[in-house]
Amino acid sequence: MDGHRWLLSTLTLVIFVSILFWIGEIDTLIKTGSKALFSAHLLSFGNSSVGNNTENVYLNASRRVAVDNLTEVGTTSDVVTSDRNGSVSSEEGNYYLTASFRGRLGNQMFQYAVLFATARANHAWIPLLKKCRRLNVLKNTFGRSLSISSANFTIVNATAVEGIVDADVMLKELRHLPKSNVLLEGYFESHKYFAHVKDDLRKEFTFPRPFRDEVSNYYKSVTPILWKDEPFVRVGIHVRRTTLITEERQKMGFIPRPPTYFTHAMEYFKQKYNRVQFIVTSDDLAWCKDNILGEHIAYSTHNYTIDLAILSLSDHIIISLGTFSWWAGWLCKGTTVYYGVMPPNDTYLGKVYNNNSCVPVPDDEYNHWVSII
């Protein structure tokens, strides 16, 4: 009998110590903010979330997949992905969806947008960002507002889906993906790909607080002294030159914006508003200072990520060449003025943008697009 009591007491003590250890571990996890690890613990007990304000976290310990040559094979046996909107999960039977992510920030934003939109239209596919240095540009610009997780593993047996000129035809393909892992190849540069998720996409492309604070401080520093206590309108101007105005690029259909375009666009706003300040951002400020002249003009010397925030947070915007400029116009809540001369029909861009299914100007109540030459 004494032996049984001793054994029972010992077991009780072991269970009690184990409970204390478990509680202490949870407390440590909470204090260190390790939500994914904490959620993984809870998943083993049939729960997939922590509290009401955390992301849904899905644990998949059996599959390590990603696109060949896009990422290095991960070193962990567990794959944790999260979907802030709760529209997909990593249960068996689902597939993975990623994109090739080429080019610089503007191109990457298009590729992220089509990845985001395609995943919304195909809930059986889990969207993932590939692991590569190039994507740091996108991640550093928008930070935690991006809800698609990064892969730390390799996706195999992926079917490549190539972007084509006709956006309407391409949309049909994106809504009926092959039953496999999928790699989106190409640039997909049409607003039609993500028109059905545009409001949610704008939340994805939200600048981090430090960026917004820097822009706010810059706005204050360049506000005309006599307008400190007066209402006025701020118009951002983006001028893309350098690599997009070479002879080779012009043969592709890139048309350098002449000084008269910016003069006419600025006059458009001056006629609408009593007080207008213009903030010029460019990869060629010397050209801008020689050709974009007038009163109440500031020239930004920030890097391109802050410049994008300066432009898109302005009241209105005048855009020029390139995807960076287009996104600044799309993100701006006011009027977007664009150059009304389309590329020649016999050029690459002419074939892309003169196609009725791939118009570069969105029909959007969020902002108003105006053509000026």
UniProtKB/TrEMBL annotation:
Topology of this chain in the membrane: Single-pass type II membrane protein
Pathways involved: Protein modification; protein glycosylation
Subcellular location: Golgi apparatus, Golgi stack membrane
Pfam families membership: Glyco_transf_11
GO cellular component: Golgi cisterna membrane
E.C. numbers: 2.4.1.-
Keyword Methyltransferase appears in the UniProt entry: no
GO MF, one example: galactoside 2-alpha-L-fucosyltransferase activity
Keyword entries, A-Z: Glycoprotein, Glycosyltransferase, Golgi apparatus, Membrane, Signal-anchor, Transferase, Transmembrane, Transmembrane helix
GO biological process entries: carbohydrate metabolic process
Domain of life of the native organism: Eukaryota
Main location as per UniProt: Golgi
TM stretches of this protein: 6-24
UniProt similarity note: Belongs to the glycosyltransferase 11 family.
Protein name, per record: L-Fucosyltransferase
Source organism: Paralvinella palmiformis
